[in-house]
Write a structure and sequence with these properties.
globular; five-stranded mixed β-sheet; alpha/beta; single chain
Amino acid sequence: MSLVRRPGGGFVLLDCYEMEAGDQDELMALTDGGARIEAVLNVHPFHTVHCKFIQQILPDARLIGTRRHHRKLPDLRWDPALIEDETTQQEFADIFDFSIPAGVDFIPEDESVHVSSVLVRHRESGIIHVDDTLMFLNLPGLVEKLLPGPRLRFHPKLAEGLEKRAGAADDYIAWAKALARDWADTKIVCAAHKGIIRLTDDTFAEAIGEALEQASKTLDEHRKNYG
């Protein structure tokens, strides 16, 4: 979960998380008891566990999710806007850039495939907040001496996430290359489940290029099967 201040003094939360008491106290102290948190953006369709908690402690904030959030948790007071829609993203374009991967199912039928999400980049700081679509590996000690630092990777279930059609692999590659170009000055990636990766040895473009190279077998296999 990330907390971001808007130029007018309000705040936006990215994702929901049930915090420990100390973290919750700090959040409330920063935001006038939560009153200055205007919206909560849930950017991964399969991350739903902590949404109820956040709505309970922030009852006046707009709770914005994906269409799966609405379907999975119909009893919550969801804002009608959907975060995967460009019109919703434009409401927060004063501070964020958004990106959704091409060539993959946003909400696949197989609920174990968490390949897609809405990636969010805080423009001023150049920090990316991402759930699952980009991950990173902490290498074993011996390997780390040769290849220092964690390595950025695409979700390991990319093969299952790619759309079953011709051109899906190429669409995914084009999306990744455009992301590397458009968000080239990124220095920090906040990745769900893993924490924070600081790009000190590689540029973001180089890290994405290496991730594509690591995924090349998967992408080639998809192209072979579907064209």
